[in-house]
């Protein structure tokens, strides 16, 4: 793993996510909720698939902290998204021996599940911290929309990451 490229890609993805995936540009309105992909979680899933297991949680936590600082300002305490990213990346690294990470279906399903697993607790915590009435359907719609949008972009970004960030010798189809 070329960690300097992970840092560079993380910075670029954070800028793209905050600048382009806003409701007025590339952000969508699905299910009556604003929807945007989670590009930093895509990077965390990629790191979980290809990096050595001891550093997966730390890398996921760092990517989550970047997401906390850039995207989730005012949506809860600092570090919640970091913890969720770290745990999700760690769980992906536990099951990666059972998967074929170069398959597009594997990448799409992993990203779909990972974004959903991160977004649902975020939405629940947001309702809890703001003191508003919890709307489970609204949280589910937002989580599903973000997960679907991220899953659509997953094969393209995973291919790009594998071509540039991963160790030489990883075959990418």
**Element-by-element helix/strand order:** HEEHHHHH
CATH class (first level) name: Mainly Alpha
Looking at the overall shape, the CATH architecture is Orthogonal Bundle
Structural class: mainly alpha
Features:
single chain; 173 residues; mainly alpha; Arp2/3 complex 21 kDa subunit ARPC3; two-stranded antiparallel sheet; 2 strands
Description:
This protein is mainly alpha-helical and 173 residues long. The chain has one domain (3-163): Arp2/3 complex 21 kDa subunit ARPC3 (Orthogonal Bundle), CATH 1.10.1760. It contains 6 helices and 2 strands; from the N terminus they run H-E-E-H-H-H-H-H. The protein has helices spanning 3-19, 39-50, 53-70, 80-95, 104-130, 136-164; strands at residues 28-30, 33-35. The protein has a two-stranded antiparallel ribbon. A hairpin with a 2-residue loop joins strand 1 (28-30) and strand 2 (33-35). The protein is globular. The two termini are 18 Å apart. The mean pLDDT is 85.
């Amino acid at each position: 793993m070329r960690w300097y490229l992970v840092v560079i890609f993380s910075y670029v993805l954070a800028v793209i996510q905050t600048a382009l995936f806003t409701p007025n540009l590339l952000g969508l309105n699905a299910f009556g909720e604003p929807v945007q992909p989670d590009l930093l979680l895509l990077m965390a899933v990629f790191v979980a698939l290809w990096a050595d297991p001891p550093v997966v949680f730390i890398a996921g936590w760092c990517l989550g902290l970047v997401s906390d600082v850039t995207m989730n300002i005012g949506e809860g305490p600092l570090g919640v998204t970091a913890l969720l990213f770290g745990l999700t990346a760690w769980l992906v690294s536990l099951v990666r021996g059972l998967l074929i990470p170069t398959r597009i279906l594997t990448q799409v399903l992993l990203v779909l599940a990972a974004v959903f697993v991160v977004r649902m607790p975020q939405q629940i915590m947001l309702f809890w911290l703001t003191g508003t009435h919890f709307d489970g359907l609204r949280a589910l719609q937002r989580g599903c929309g973000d997960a679907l949008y991220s899953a659509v972009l997953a094969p393209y970004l995973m291919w790009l990451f594998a071509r540039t960030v991963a160790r030489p010798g990883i075959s990418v189809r």
